[in-house]
Amino acid sequence: MSEQETWLMVERTLDTQKFGVLATLMGEYPYTGAVTFAAPPDAKYIIFATPKHTRKYTNLKIHPKASIFVSNAANQVEDILGAIGITAVGDIEELHHTPGNQHYYDLLCDKHPCLKEFIASDSTAVFKLKILKYYVVRDFQRVFEFHIQDKDTNS
């Protein structure tokens, strides 16, 4: 499978999967936690929400860099060769609920309508992970690296 076909798998996986694992820095060690997320078709960023009283929130405010891991694995033997694992790495920006940010909130709510009330809550923070690069593993050990600014897409 070519690099272009792998990139299409990335876009499809980000569109179909609902959960990822967010990695933040807590002191000198990584801290991970599950998040629901949404990404636009060009995959230049990932939007997610977390309560403001969590370690995730505190860590992101102190160190505004993170990664999110997303996989289409279904915990089956076939996943060894058939699953894709995507690590998105980038800079974090908290998105306050303003008219200029509404499209980010809409993207997240459209993918997760059952979380609309949670996302809109004053006790919830919505973040944008501005992707610098994706590391993609497929076929068990084939690794691809995509620098997001190299993709021929519009913001």
Tell me about this structure.
The chain is globular, with a radius of gyration of 15 Å. The chain is of the alpha+beta class. It has 5 helices and 7 strands. Strands 1-2-3-6-5-4 form a 6-stranded antiparallel barrel. It has helices at 3-16, 55-62, 79-82, 102-111, 116-120; strands at 19-26, 29-38, 45-51, 65-71, 84-95, 124-138, 142-147. The chain has a single domain (3-148), classed as Electron Transport, Fmn-binding Protein, Chain A (Pnp Oxidase, Chain A). A hairpin with a 6-residue loop joins strand 2 and strand 3.
Describe, in short, the structure shown.
With 155 residues, this protein is of the alpha+beta class. The chain is 26% helix and 42% strand.
Termini separation comes to 27 Å
Number of structural units classed as domains: 1
Radius of gyration: 15 Å
CATH topology (level 3) name:
Pnp Oxidase, Chain A
Number of strands: 7
Main β sheet profile: 6 strands, antiparallel, barrel
Which structural class do the helices and strands define?
alpha+beta
CATH superfamily: Electron Transport, Fmn-binding Protein, Chain A
- CATH architectural grouping: Roll
Counting DSSP H or I runs of 4 or more residues, the number of helices is 5
Residue runs with pLDDT of under 50 for 5 or more positions: none
Q: Specify the helix fraction band.
A: 25-40%
Beta content comes to: 35-45%
Order of helices and strands: HEEEHEHEHHEE
Mean pLDDT: 92
Q: Would you spell out the secondary-structure blueprint of this structure?
A:
Layout: H1 3-16, E1 19-26, E2 29-38, E3 45-51, H2 55-62, E4 65-71, H3 79-82, E5 84-95, H4 102-111, H5 116-120, E6 124-138, E7 142-147
Antiparallel strand pairs: 1-2, 1-4, 2-3, 3-6, 4-5, 5-6, 6-7
